[in-house]
Write a structure and sequence with these properties.
With 760 residues, the chain is of the alpha/beta class. The protein folds into four domains: 9-173, Methane Monooxygenase Hydroxylase, Chain G, domain 1 (Up-down Bundle), CATH 1.20.58; 179-314 and 335-383, 2-Layer Sandwich (polyphosphate kinase like); 397-575, Endonuclease, Chain A (2-Layer Sandwich); 580-759, 2-Layer Sandwich (Endonuclease, Chain A). Helices cover 36% and strands 20% of the residues. The protein contains 21 helices and 27 strands. Strands 14, 18, 19, 20, 21, 23, 24, 25, 26 and 27 form a ten-stranded mixed sheet that branches. Strands 10, 11, 12, 13, 15, 16, 17 and 22 form an eight-stranded mixed sheet that branches. Helix 5 (101-131) runs antiparallel to helix 6 (144-177), helix 13 packs parallel to helix 14 and helix 17 (584-601) runs parallel beside helix 18 (620-631).
Length: 760
Amino acid sequence: MPQPKKNTAATAATTNEDASAAGLQSTGAASEIKASSSQAAAPNTEILIDQMPPEPVAIDLTSDVPNETAEQTELYINRELSWLEFNQRVLEEAGSESHRLLERLKFVAIFHSNLDEFFMIRVAGLEEQYRAGFGELTIDGLSPKQQLAEIRKRIKLQLEQVHHLCYADILPKLHAAGVRILGYEQFTQAQQHKLAKFFDEQIFPVLTPLAIDTGHPFPYVSNLSLSLVVQLKIAGETNGDSGLRFARVKVPDVLPRLCQVDEICGDDDGPETVSYVWLEDIIAHNLAKLFPDMEILETHPFRLTRNADIEIEEDEASDLLETIEKGIRQRRYGAVVRLEITATMPEHIKQMLMENLEITGHHVYTSKSALGLSSLMTLMEVPMSALKDIPFVPHNPFENGENEDLFTQIRQHDILLNHPYDSFEPVIDFIGKAARDPGVLAIKQTLYRVGKNSPIVQALIEAAENGKQVAVLLELKARFDEENNITWAKALEKVGVHVVYGLVGLKTHAKISLVVRREPGGLKRYVHLGTGNYNTASAKVYTDYGLFTCNEEIGADASELFNFLTGYSKQKSYRRLIVAPLNIRSQMLAFISRETLRHQSSGAAGDGRIVMKMNALVDPDIIGALYEASQAGVKIDLIIRGICALRPGLKGLSETIRVISIVGRFLEHSRVFYFHNGGAEEMYLGSADMMQRNLDRRVEILFPLLDAGLKAQVKESLEIMLRDTVKSRTLQPSGIYTPTVIDGGETIDSQTYFLNAKRK
């Protein structure tokens, strides 16, 4: 068995933002990846590769990769294909009848939203590598060309699955339950008349038909926009193809994509029935009003996805805010990475679009479904509680404080919140009360994704207006939140908050808030540390931990960390916090090595034990250390929601490593790292996944749980997740996920377990 290669971080593909959703069962084994890369391509694969534009540096798919890389291929799962397994798990949740119907449809929307981001960032990056002739293989032994071909093959299978699931299962059942998405022709003549009037009054004024001919160049089509391509001719003309014309009509994104017909038509079918029609369907049936004296021959929808990864040369940027604002505008003009069309579009129209968009066949994805199904999330607004999850009221541990204020309770002992089972309100109250407390002198805060109408930001503004010293590091480079963060940055600066936009070359992903308060005994520092964002919306659906503490060492670390973030401090070490890019990797390697050595020194009775929970595991050094620990016999459990490049269960290498993924009602987002340490247990929580981007190119924090009771509480939660047999799936050596089976164990849905525990 080959040994894991050391110091291979440079050969691994770069990684990007978290996908904000959940995951599913595999459509193909990762063991097939190596086979497909070394054998002659199957006919369908050959077609895909032939459709690629000529590459500057040829890579022969039929040739074997170098021996060393071939050995590495056996040790690692491809990052992109692992992500597709994650999104397949989302699709599995859509198919699970344990969820109510609208919740199942929600997972369909999440699946498509995830896929959009995957194309905008990951596929776009591979396309760039391919066109640049990038010949270096990833750590698992695949070239960009091979990855693109395998990605396309798997996504096409997934799209077939989601179409069948949506149109043969979920939507018919929703129809029977009273939620209907109907075609324009399915409505009565009276209803169609009212829809036509709605078109005239609400839709027609915002439409702009754009002709496509020698005098009208093909119009620009923005990222993720839905359009109609219209083939028409002058009414009465009989001169064959010479009289044919094309036009593009953008489906306006300022209007609801799903239009509620009951409201438009004034129908009253009762509270148990609601009907919708797609906006593009209304437009398509009223196009004659846009093209008078023209004959509409055909109308077909299409949707574009572009490269949306903003490249920022920070060293050359005199004003980071201005540079990112410019980058957001440029995002609209990125290269096309996907063209979605419906199965009814004829070949000549498809070819016309491909020619004008300057793309080839491998960019085209044909769907039997409506395009852009992420819009189905709108139906979660339907007021039918029987079709949604049973609501719950999060627990607020501060309400048990017998009227003691928040600061008093934190002084008494550390308090740990487990969102969303525990309320996010204490976090809002922490900043809000600090803003109004006359004893508070200063508030310092990192913000990554705060969302719209943020009560946290409003509290910081109030604090500044009340004369507090307020400093905020607001990360402008948080992908797809740049525009929102720029808005908040300007609002904070307007009231005198010291706003720092981030560090050159690094994203600040750490979640920390520091309050400095004058008390009778002197100044006291109160700290909140979290694994998730200061975002009230995500706190309701993401599982995250948040710790309140006034531990003096952690408080001192927090002050010095903010000096590093806002000033020129070159702090290299901290008392209790572990901080990237300084030392998270080295400390994690040291913890794993310590566990390995302790286990080996204990002989056959060794009690080595490691449990890690995170969103992704890609870093080759961390994986190599875990392989070595497994070879020594250390029992290792990994709870990894998404991407996992480690292959568990390989004989002689990773036999003692078990990897599970949990996808359910909530998005597993917390990061926890537990080491048995010979009984002197250590546990760290934080914001960092074990990926090169997190460890080398971000400011991240891991913080310890020092209270024995809190440590035991989190350890028990980990053990319950490891016994999950409902929403958990186990990663096999081949790279596929299978349902988790535990001999003699009870049936456990860990998220439901935690919900019920908080209800009690």
